Amino acid sequence: MARWSCDFRYLLILVVIGFIYTQMKLFATQSEYAEALETAVEAENHCRNQMRLLIDQISMNQENIVVLEEKVKRQEQECEHLRALVQDLEKKGVRSLTREEQAPVAAVVIMACNRADYLERTIKSILKYHSLVASKFPIFVSQDGSNSDVRAKALSYDQLTYMQHLDYEPVRTERPGELIAYYKIARHYKWAMDQLFYKHKFNRVIILEDDMEIAPDFFDYFEAGAGLLDKDKSIMAISSWNDNGQKQFVHDPYMLYRSDFFPGLGWMLAKPTWDELSPKLQENHKGRQFIRPEVCRTYNFGEHGSSLGQFFQQYLKPIKLNDVKVDWKSMNLSYLMEDKFVKHFADMVKNAKPLYGSDLVLKTNNVDGDVRIKYKDQSHFENIAQQFGIFEEWKDGIPRTAYKGVVVFRHQTLKRVFLVGPDSLHQLGIQNVV
Fold first, then answer.
1. What is the rounded CA–CA span in Å between residue 399 and residue 390?
2. What are the two backbone dihedrals, phi and then psi, of residue 419, each rounded to the nearest 5 degrees?
3. Is it the case that residue 74 has pLDDT exceeding 80?
4. Rounded to 5 degrees, what angle do the CA atoms 264, 338, 373 make?
5. What is the spatial distance between Cα 2 and Cα 7, in angstroms, rounded to a whole number?
6. Domain spans, the chain
7. What is the pLDDT of residue 308?
């Protein structure tokens, strides 16, 4: 009996030990579970926080999208309003033209970009002489770009029509180091000329820049020139400019010349010629020439611009702007026709006294009438031109203002100096003269 009681106690002890062990294991398991649960809860809270941040970010982005959409919508409305305004102004200009029985002589377009103060000066100069010929010469301002001051200035004048050229295409120059500005100007010129010739259907266009003043007889001069363009297809354009038009080199406001050199700075072109130039926008004379005056009908005051003030102080600032009101309608300009001008000019060159050697300016001073000086090549010409102070530069193989290689300018007020190229006399048909 005692033995059984002892065994029972051992058994009970084993059961107690087993129970305690089981409780300990259970407690350990519960602790691990509690830790895992706590970790899971923390992870869930982190996910919730991240979710809230993402939702907030999405909401903010949606708000930004709505704001941007509204901004785009407003800009589109503003652009549409501006387009409508421009179209309305163009329609007004076209309607004012169609009301006239007589076709315009030429459209006058002022090429502008970002110089509002220059543009205003140019417009005021044109309007000073424009009122009596408004129907013959409708005025346009063509702006390259979106400068708001230029646009506002152009739109403030009822006497003209505003056009805007927007070009965002990248520029690729043909040669390294070339100014991109000249390529952009060329694109603008092509666009404006296409607009005036093909959209508005003008027969002729006079091109000015936003840094020019005009002479009192500017419009009469170009009206007379329009007749020459129509009669003589060998004339490529009528120009109002003489590169050697400085005060000391000019005298006669009635005198006009033909030139193989394109003068630019105020010129008139006819539609058939633009039909040839527009597709490739390349200057191609095809043996044709330009009419230029002795005394300029435009004055360029643009010291600051795309050309960076090149030549301004020496050649542009001293230019003589004609101040004589020439009655071009009564002038007989038939001497400028191709077949007549060669002989007319040859006679002037032939009758001039030839000079040789050095000290040419001094020798010229000692001659009463016109003089003729022969140059051998470009270098020789530049040396002589430097002595007299005229433009030395050549372009496309010829000196500025040259006709058949001959450059003419005044010296000591009245006398003419003819700088004659090595082949000029032959080209002019002058024989037995050296």
1. 11
2. -90, 115
3. no
4. 70
5. 9
6. 100-335, 339-427
7. 46
Question: Looking at domain 339-427, does it have CATH number 3.10.180.20?
Answer: yes
Condensed to tens digits (0 to 9), the pLDDT of residues 348-379 reads 999 999 999 999 999 999 999 999 999 999 99
Measured between alpha carbons, how far is residue 107 from residues 126, 137, 198 in Å? 13, 5, 12
CATH of domain 100-335: 3.90.550.10
Contact 140, 196 (CB under 8 A): yes
The average confidence (pLDDT) of the chain is 87
Residue 101 — very low, low, confident or very high, per pLDDT cuts 50/70/90?
Answer: low
- Residues of the chain with pLDDT > 90, as a percent, come to 63
The two domains 100-335 and 339-427 share their CATH topology (first three levels equal): no
pLDDT band at 98 (very low <50, low <70, confident <90, very high): very low
